[in-house]
Amino acid sequence: MITASPTARLSPAAADWRELWRDAITNAAELLQAAGLGHRADLLPVDDAGFALRVPRGFVARMRQGDPADPLLLQVLPRAAEHDQVEGFTTDAVGDLPAKAGQGVLHKYSGRALLVASGSCAINCRYCFRRHFPYGDEIAAAGQWRKALDHVRQDPTITELILSGGDPLSLATAKLEELTQGLQEIPHVVRLRIHTRLPVVLPERVDRALMDWMAQLPLQKVVVLHANHANEFDASVDEACARLREAGATLLNQAVLLRGVNDNADALAALSERMFAAGVLPYYLHQLDRVRGAAHFEVDDSRALALVEELRQRLPGYLVPKLVREVAGEASKTPL
Ligand SMILES: *Cc1c(COP(=O)(O)O)cnc(C)c1O
Ligand code: SF4
């Protein structure tokens, strides 16, 4: 049997990712229309609670038509509950957001330095801490990288650089090249890790130029995707994952446990199975960061633990994610 290689599947006529990025839906009425819910005026949000609606059309196409409880729709449609003031839910839930937005590099965990490479995202996820930090593209510009790289260069204990954000793959590939050129000259850095949701929400981002950049990097490469539900995967995401693997990346996924989206064992098991079919292993299942406006997504700890216990009984060990939460000041993610 002849099977097309992932490269062969990269059609030269594929739409440019930047155009698709700009073409995202930013209007609630249009989103509801596209999701087959145009008749449901009751679902129209009064406002966006200060965090703009934004979702690429390809992601919308994976929503179930006519289902107001669709797990993809719920991640992006503003809801009145975002105005709820709930105790413990703040605008700086992770505790280091000023640092993230300011100096660009975070070195909290041993061996790993995290660079906030870009504040931009192709999609606005309603549960994200980023909703309170509209940091722009300037993070990666203006010599920030040089300072970050200086920090990494001066500390031989750092063996892994993590590009995070926002979404680091929102940067032009030429920018990424510029960054990693400096990185390659630092002998103690052996691994580059990229935390990104783009291969899932805008798989066209994994284009030839990105693959070429990755493939030639003399570093171990890890890409940590972010998908919360099996339905976020389709053939285009499978292909993006195949291209990333072809470029030498190990693929992992982190999900956030979200009420109404994936807070049942069937959904979580299906997510693990579906991502594995795309060559992706589960890494973390995060308890929600307690950000203001996201309280309606929270799942309590006892239920979270019960869900993971059920997964452990149903799935091979390698398909069970680690349930963690981010606690400000801790030296690692905190297991539940
Ligand atoms: C989450 C995080 C990391 C990565 O942690 P891992 O457990 O290695 O995935 C590194 N640095 C910071 C500041 C983080 O928040
Ligand atoms: S940082 Fe991640 S979770 Fe937050 S809006 Fe961007 S893609 Fe969504």
Automatic annotation (TrEMBL):
Signal peptide feature range: none
SUPFAM superfamilies assigned to the protein according to its UniProt record, in alphabetical order: Radical SAM enzymes
Annotated organism of origin: Dyella halodurans
InterPro entries: Aldolase_TIM, EpmB, Lys_aminomutase/Glu_NH3_mut, rSAM, rSAM_sf
Domain (Radical SAM core): residue spans on this chain: 107-330
Catalytic activity annotation: L-lysine = D-beta-lysine
Cofactor: [4Fe-4S] cluster; pyridoxal 5'-phosphate
Protein name: L-lysine 2,3-aminomutase
Cited Pfam families: Radical_SAM
Stated family: Belongs to the radical SAM superfamily. KamA family.
NCBIfam families according to UniProt: EFP_modif_epmB, KamA family radical SAM protein
UniProtKB keywords: 4Fe-4S, Iron, Iron-sulfur, Isomerase, Metal-binding, Pyridoxal phosphate, S-adenosyl-L-methionine
Gene: epmB
